[in-house]
Amino acid sequence: MTLKTLEKGAWINIxxxxxxxLKEVSALTNVEPDFLRSALDDEExxxxxxxDESIMILTNVPVIYDEESYDTLPLSVILxxxxxxxVCLEETPVISSFNERTARLFHTxxxxxxxxxxxxxxxxxxxxxxxxxxxxxNDIEDQLRRYMKNDDILRLMELQRGLTYFNxxxxxxxxxxxxxxRLRSNRTLEGILxxxxxxxxxxxxxxxxxxxxxxxxxxxxxxxxxxxxxxxSIISNxxxxxxxxxxxxxxxxxxxxxxxxxxxxNVPMPLGENNYGFLIVIFIAVTAATFAAYVFWKNRxx
Length: 302
Prior knowledge:
It contains 7 helices and 5 strands; from the N terminus they run βααββββααααα. The protein is an alpha+beta fold. A hairpin with a 2-residue loop joins strand 2 and strand 3. The longest helix has 67 residues. It starts with 9 loop residues before the first strand and ends with a helix.
């Protein structure tokens, strides 16, 4: 289906559009170009804009770039009387889950219901990725318990950064859901944002899922933060133990060195004429070093 043959109730999905594509869609749907460009700023926060005969709901959806790199992207859903338009910088799992294989499960001509299904799918992906983050953090913890490596600590930091993005996105998404609740009785949006009884139930599900995702983010963030602090303390403690051990060893070695240096002076010294003088000096040095080692051991220096 081309833009010129679009039917009423059609869904227009735009991924990383060119200026020409934006101009074509704007001319066909009478949607403000600024609405279409809003989601192309990857730092845009979730919000709602109402303009003439259209409403834009911009939300942040979760994405994953590799096994452990999590982020969010702005996704705008624009409702008009005849069309529903989605705009995003990249193909996301949220939008790609609405395809030909799942077409019988949603109806684009029910614009408000389709909007809530997109928001609900976004919340479920947040929950899915949060469970993955929790599993990865447990794996990293097991690795760090056995052997601390810089790579594992960097992996932990990457997960913390993803949770920070998720937390900010879910908070702004909450504000969007609250505003949608307030817009239900707005008569100027009749024919654009119409919420029926079954839509109310779906919206409540979205709010519940989003709230659960927020609680999970806060809990996992605290766990990762505490884990990082604990392992930082362990690393610092291990370093102190190593330094303490090396200091003790240095002192123990210094004792026989000092004794040997005294008897090695080029001046008359006791035992200089004794045939067993060398062995006696060795015995004194070993005894002194052993005594120093015993003192350090009693004081738990190593």
